[in-house]
Amino acid sequence: MGQLNQRHILVAISGGIAAYKGAELVRLLKKQGARVRVVLSRGATEFITPLTMQALSGEPTHTELLDEAAEAGMGHIELARWADVMIIAPATADVIARLAQGRADDLLTTVALATPAPVAVAPAMNQQMWAHAATQENIQMLASRHIQIIGPDAGEQACGDVGPGRLLDPEAIVAAVNARFESRLLEGRRVVITAGPTLEAIDPVRYLSNHSSGKMGFALAGACAEAGAQVELISGPVHLDTPNRVTLHPVTSATEMCEQALALSAGADVFIGAAAVADYRPESASAEKIKKADGNPLILTLVENPDIIACVAQSSSRPYMVVGFAAETASLMDHAREKRQRKGLDMIIANDVSDPDTTFGSEQNAVHLITATEEQSLPLASKRVIAEQIVAAVAATLNR
Ligand code: PMT
Question: Do residues 71 and 46 lie in contact, with contact meaning Cβ atoms separated by under 8 Å?
């Protein structure tokens, strides 16, 4: 499986004769293991039916901006946040012009404006329309906003003209989107990441733990691997697939995680602590199942676990960059700034876990990156998109 495996890809099809190729694009993306949702502009529904796209994608097709049923489930903002990448193919001259103007007058343009995910545009139109100064200026404008322009191809057109303006083959569009994810920002770097919860045994059948699902740490591991890094992922017990090209080191307790973290981080370039490490563990785990004591309270003595990330940051073979998370329910920024300094971190990622959208187990996150000199907010997006933005920030610091 390639870079698109498990990605959430939003394919937006606008109303041109090449709209039928959108069906093949969706089929190819599904073949790569991606989850695909489709937005059809009103014009596109003249060329291809929502039912066809629904059958191919296995997901409901979206056509209207104001749709009661969709707003209750996957409204335009949810759709925008769901996407890891949005591909507009074919993109007509009209859609390109409306994107350039930042219009939000239908579902397609509204989602394009609302999504924090990268957007790719594959133009398709008559060669004269493509060559027109207005279209060329609009394309330049989109490219300057880091929108990926894929194609167009040149050759015989449906109208009989010959020249540039044909939609690129769906295979080439998939290859271009794949290539974008291979950023190589961390080429040759070794990154160690902790993820998930730790489990602290009380007896053979009980433990203390927390609600971390590991999604944020695994998303980071995937993003680092795609950026070319060698990735060692130390994770507590979770139910997630290990991303491609990532070496998983499963652990259970904070003590085990600490041992692995110190061993693996020696000489690494970057250490990222995304794990929700239990701060305390029972002083000793009972060898046998503890019996109920006839209504008497059970008193557990808890002792402090090692602060793993602080140990890594203080070790003699400290990685070049040590990045932590601060999971807070109040005074987010103040607590995060204080934690960064106290633990000796280069960067801390402040994560408000009082908000259901950005907490343990959620699909999305919104965070603030804090260093000694800079602060940057990353608005709500899938954990994958947030992970890629964190990777970009880490790479920028490393390469400085
Ligand atoms: O796993 P998910 O469901 O996707 O949820 C993601 C997350 C909320 C767990 C993640 O985004 C997050 O915020 N992780 C850090 C959770 C946490 O333990 O935060 P903290 O503020 O208590 O710890 C600060 C930093 O110290 C963290 O980098 C933590 O990994 C590290 N730490 C904490 C305690 C300890 N004994 N050792 C540590 O290394």
Answer: no
Nearest-angstrom CA–CA distance, 271 and 194: 8
The owner of tokens 């804090």 is: 370
Residues 184, 192: Cα–Cα separation, whole Å = 17
Domains of the chain: 8-180 (3.40.50.1950), 190-399 (3.40.50.10300)
**How many A from CA of 325 to the centre of ligand 1?**
5
Q: Is 223 helix (H, G, I), strand (E, B) or coil?
A: helix
Quote the ligand 1 centre to 328 CA distance (angstroms): 9
Distance from Cα 84 to the centre of ligand 1, integer Å: 24
Tell me if 112 sits within 8 A of 88, measured CB to CB: yes
Round to whole Å and give the CA distance between 394 and 297.
Answer: 48
Alpha-carbon distance 49 to 68, whole Å? 20
Please classify residue 50 by burial: count the beta carbons closer than 10 Å to its beta carbon, then call 0-12 exposed, 13-18 middle and 19+ buried: middle
pLDDT in tens, 372-384: 999 999 999 999 9
For 103: left if phi > 0, alpha if psi spans -120 to 50, otherwise beta; the answer is: beta
Task: Look up the pTM and report it.
Answer: 0.83
Helix axes 383-399, 215-226, angle to 10 degrees: 50
| Spatial distance between the Cα atoms of 174 and 87, rounded to a whole number of angstroms | 10
Q: Ligand 1, residues 212, 279, 352, 364: which to mutate, most atoms within 8 A of Cβ?
A: 212
pLDDT at 76: 86
CA distance 280 to 306: 9
For residue 377, the surrounding DSSP H or E stretch is strand 375-382
Which has the closest alpha carbon to 12: 110, 101, 139? 110
Q: Is the CB of 10 under 6 A from ligand 1?
A: no
CA-closest residue to ligand 1 atom 27? 325
**311 part of the active site:** no
pLDDT per 10-residue tile (average), the chain, 400 residues = 82 96 97 95 96 96 79 77 95 98 96 94 97 97 95 90 93 92 89 98 98 98 95 98 94 98 97 98 96 88 98 97 98 98 98 96 96 95 94 93
> What single-letter DSSP state applies at residue 41?
-
